[in-house]
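Exam revision sheet. Question 4 asks you to relate a sequence to its structure. Input first:
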Amino acid sequence: MLKSFSGFGKYVISMICAVAAICLIVLEISALSDMGKNKGIYYRIDSESEMIPSREAYVYYDEKYGENAQENEDELQYDMLFWKDYGSGTVENHLLGRISETGIVYACGRTDLMAKDALRLDHDDAGLCILGKQTAWELFGTENADGLRVHYGEDDYIVADVSREIDRIFIAQTGGGSDINFDRINVVPEYEEQAMMIRQEIESIFETGSRLENDFVYWILKLVLLISPVIVILFFAGYAVRRIPRRKKLITVCTALSIIVMAAVIAGYPDDMIPPAWSDLQFWPEMLAEKAESINTFIKGHKTEIEMRYLYCAVRAFLFGLMSAFLTIAAVMSFKIKYRDLHMKGEVEKNERTSYSTDKQDLS
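Answer key, structure tokens:
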């Protein structure tokens, strides 16, 4: 029997699938980490009549975070950014006669919530802008464009910094005197429990917006990440209880439920998935319909490079998770088949030896 297990070459397929699954899990964790850097509350406004005027956004932000803002311990404090995606536009360098087709974004608030690696511009930094690295290269022939001047529309802007993470972007602070209407709001809570309170405050003040369910999507992807470990645990748990008479099914079911509960606890859950009353049976259907509508709105709408990066991370994490689960199943099934074949071969050899010994005794 021991001899039959000495050839590890018979498990090559199983081992290759297992190694590949582990590599995909590592890649999925990396994609989830990139997504985690962009977690927050994100509102998208698709109706022109409901967009937020720049003056209204500026006054709100200035009263809450400006130099004259009064400190109030009971008031919610969180990082936020109003912004407007104008699609593609032409930014010019009049001095060198160069132009660049790039994504145009007007903002009011903390620009580091959008271009995380660039210098932070605030609501009162009108006339300053941030460029993507490719945009800066096309306009100036270098990525070190700090302090240089560009032209867009009817205005000149001074480059405050260049983002090395974003290729094509032009982000400009509007100030309080422009006629821009913002169609997006980024809000970052200081801690998870604050998210629900911020959502209620934003929706009560501006009475508009479709929340991007990034927390919900992030949670789903964490569950996808746990599929492979759960499959492995269930497989070995099944082998551990296979010889227990009569109680096998009960123990298997209990083991499966325990693993599922453990996975849900490890992944956590968004705070808004808990109903105010457990007797409210309509809560989950309505909640899922709301989240599905929000995700559908985001997927169908025009997206900037920044939003596409977030979507790319989500798709990448989902595909890596499914591929790792598939390879884990393949590894487990291959191992199971090889183990069964070796076990049967061992039993046959054992029976042959027993039969040979019996025949030899009979001849004696």
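Marking note for examiners. Residues 1-7 have pLDDT under 50 and may be disordered.
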